[in-house]
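TL;DR need structure tokens for one chain.
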Amino acid sequence: PLFLFIKCIFIPSLYNMTPEKKVKTKVKSILDKLGAYHCMPATGGYGANGVPDILACYKGLFVGIECKANGGRPTALQRKHLKDIQTAKGFSIIIDEHNIDMLESMLNQL
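>> reply
TL;DR here they are.
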């Protein structure tokens, strides 16, 4: 039916996502479950390079989350932004498919 065709095209599936996109989707789901405010800042021509993939506010604390997959490592500029967040008394973390299950408990310890 036409509905199923439209659903397949317009509703993203985990099967069509890159590994990093899967991590980002799961992180956003965890943040939603916790009731945290979060957004994904624009990058490229209009945004700042190196800013974490997801910016959030949880329990009044600024949180920067850099998402990686398949052994990816943050760039020097991404590491600088994560360190700057910590220097400003925020919380920053690198999340990948290996430590994503610990994200909720880490945030709840804030």
